[in-house]
Amino acid sequence: MDPADDEHLSPDKQIDIAKKMYIGGFFFLPWLWLVNFLFYKEYMNKPNTPPIVKTYVYRSLAGFGIWTVVFFIWLSVYLVNHNSWGAGGDKIAVNIPKGV
């Protein structure tokens, strides 16, 4: 299905999908925000796209960007400091590397 083909999705369906993906991103599924943006980027330049869809899509992009920045900040802090956290740093690790 070509997202630029307006015959496939009515404005009501566009709103419904964009809203569900936007809300879904708040349940620790930020990849839904990225998918929401990528799916609707072709619709964004269409004059008949409902303004609320554009709002959901731009907020999804902003949410994904913020989540990505926060994730990489946390990753950097963890990678630099996890050894100094002792057992607590090991408990939150998925894979504890075996060292000498």
Biggest sheet descriptor:
none
Q: Which structural category fits the helices and strands?
A: mainly alpha
What is the gyration radius calculated from CA atoms?
A: 19 Å
Average of pLDDT:
87
Give the tally of β-strands: 0
Specify the helix fraction band. Answer: 55-70%
Q: How would the global form be characterised?
A: elongated
The topology string of helices and strands comes to: HHHH
Assembly form of the protein? single chain
Distance between the termini: 55 Å
Total DSSP helices = 4
Q: Unreliable segments (pLDDT under 50, ≥5 consecutive)?
A: none
Give the DSSP E fraction (strand runs of 2 or more residues). under 5%
Pfam family, one: PEN-2
InterPro entries: Gamma_Secretase_Asp_P_PEN2 (IPR019379)
Keywords: Membrane, Notch signaling pathway, Transmembrane, Transmembrane helix
Membrane topology: Multi-pass membrane protein
Written account of the structure:
The chain has helices at residues 11-24, 31-40, 51-81, 87-91. The protein is mostly helical and 100 residues long. The longest helix has 31 residues, at 51-81. The termini are far apart. The protein has a domain at 11-70. It is built from four helices and no strands. The mean pLDDT is 87. It is a multi-pass membrane protein. It is found in: Membrane. InterPro entries: Gamma_Secretase_Asp_P_PEN2 (IPR019379). Keywords: Membrane, Notch signaling pathway, Transmembrane, Transmembrane helix. This is Gamma-secretase subunit PEN-2.
